[in-house]
Predict the 3D structure of the following.
Amino acid sequence: MKAEIVNVGDEILLGQIVNTNATFLSKALVSAGIEPKWITVLADNREAILNGLKIALKRADVVVVTGGLGPTHDDLTKYAAAEFFQSPLKINPDIYEGLKRRFEERGRPMPEVNRNQAEVPTKATILSNPIGTAPGLLFEKDGKLCFILPGVPREMERMTRESVLPILARRFEKKRTCLRFKTLRTTGIFESKLMEVLGDVQKIEQVAKVAFLPHFYGVDVRLTVKSNSDSECEERLKKAEALVRARVERYIYGVDEDTLEQKVAELLFQTKQTVAVAESCTGGLLSHKLTNVPGSSDYFDRAVISYSNRSKIENLGVSPHTLEQFGAVSEETAREMAEGVRKMAGTNWGLSTTGIAGPGGGTAEKPVGLVYIGLSGEEESTVRRFIFTTDRLANKERAAYAALEILRRRLLKFI
Amino acid sequence: MKAEIVNVGDEILLGQIVNTNATFLSKALVSAGIEPKWITVLADNREAILNGLKIALKRADVVVVTGGLGPTHDDLTKYAAAEFFQSPLKINPDIYEGLKRRFEERGRPMPEVNRNQAEVPTKATILSNPIGTAPGLLFEKDGKLCFILPGVPREMERMTRESVLPILARRFEKKRTCLRFKTLRTTGIFESKLMEVLGDVQKIEQVAKVAFLPHFYGVDVRLTVKSNSDSECEERLKKAEALVRARVERYIYGVDEDTLEQKVAELLFQTKQTVAVAESCTGGLLSHKLTNVPGSSDYFDRAVISYSNRSKIENLGVSPHTLEQFGAVSEETAREMAEGVRKMAGTNWGLSTTGIAGPGGGTAEKPVGLVYIGLSGEEESTVRRFIFTTDRLANKERAAYAALEILRRRLLKFI
């Protein structure tokens, strides 16, 4: 069972809005066991819609169209669909009365322009729209289904849940496939290195499809399983996850929507430990992430964002001698920053960053992207050195992620 | 001139990510005077890509494809394009050396899997990727152009600006229509109030289309003009902007892609003034924004993120008496935080935030969303009180924006 999502609307084509309707419909169709294979955005134009419908109904079993059902002159979807399915339009008295009542309830007469919303193709099944004026339509042709829904997200979402999904469930009960995903989120390892450590991906692929999704802060490994049986689906997904975890467990900080800061927070909550932060090159981003988690005041005591050397000396107790001899971006300074903030705050951990975020300020010896991350604990302090990129914002993000990951691994006693 | 955007990626089809690449490309193409008429999302599948290219190159003059250029086994776009354009693949020694160097600079050998990224179709023009490993490609056929770019947004965006748009400008100078937008960005004023202050929008609409785009941190006013003449386009846009500015100038912090922190930074750079920050509820976000601007060490000295009361006393000199009598979330504490950090750092300005970010921690007297923002200068200190929402992350964002806007208006002597 293949599906195509068709979104009609110039505002999407011009980049004025992001096509979140497609994202919602994708998830809805996947949950119904029907795979979206194409998403197409079309202009508010009769010919474009006709051609789009032609292509979609040729290649897909289920087509879901959104948008262009309103009452104005550039709402053309219904007319194009009527033409495509060769179905004349006729005023539907029930819809007409419903519209009139809707406006009366709001204490005003129905504008003439809305009258045409009661006009529907005679061959279509009407899908009621409980919160808007444009009804949805369902056409059937050669065993294929074509749903047409309004583009207003709230109306489209509700009608998908209340009409489209139940109809699909009834119609395709036997043909539907179970499609399940799980995303294993890693950080601190490059995509290519991750693939190397994972080894023979083909072995995992016998059980589940494997995709690597690199973000600049880490690589997600997405497992996808497709099967006719729900139980087999679950079982294979579990097996694939176990295969991946057996090899790269230490790099996996969470699954699906988990964030690294959440996982660090959970570890700190569980063990009732606390952290203080001394940031230079990350400029507040590390603290921002750590305080995004509700309840973070339980583990986060304070941070000093020490951009100036004076602040490193005054607020963190970094020795002027260290700054002079090794510079602000050095292993020694990172160590003293982490130790200083831990001591001052009286926390279990002190975490520090110092580096050259860029784009300026680099030298041959200390290039843009050079970052030291210090972690001071009760037993010892460690500093790690990184070379990131030449992009300021990416460097801040990467350094903040690296710092969180170092703390996570230490809390798990991986390092 | 008609364009089609083709995004390759199962993760979009499955609803795992929102297709923001299409939105970026739509805007970019429109800015180049070429109207996107179709957006198509295709599966990571050879046949799907081949068919998608066939349809796109039949109906559009310019096709921009993104995604599927990485080094892994499900990156198939390059191979499908080579097949479609009947162009054999060959290792490009320059790209190969560049890749090797890229890895060497990071102190590690190039993984074998990356080798195939140096393999390019011989008929394609190479578009360099300054921040990633996958080069872009440009194919030409029957006077039509087909750009192929990586799916990583940062890489795709940079290559669009640096390669795609200049090439389009050279090739299609005469065929394009002028479609111009300008976004006037406001903050610190509600949409309804903004419309009220703007008054008769119809008057502006005689010159340009006006749209209000509310974000949770402010309202953008977008002006759109379409014309066959570049000069008329520019003139009408200027006129519309002047009409808006005449009424709401003080709320407009910038245009188009400007950020509030950039504008604040410009004012600080120009006047050689400095700022230090004391954050509580914003948890580092305000400092993060202030340090996102290259060269920010010229004006940003330090920040203290004082989550604990002890930190407010120790690092900022807030009086224990104030904390006890008025609480950490109070006008008095906000004032002492701003004054304390300014004094300690010896900067021109001290900016502070204290509030209840939520979701927990609210009381009847001090609800979630209550935020005080303090600004201390050489002459006086002021504190403003806000009530934002119940959402933690939105509260952090809104409070950080409000703090930046207060500083901006003070620097401009509006307040």
Remarks:
- The longest strand of chain B covers residues 218-227.
- The domain at 260-411 of chain B is CATH 3.90.950.20 (Maf protein).
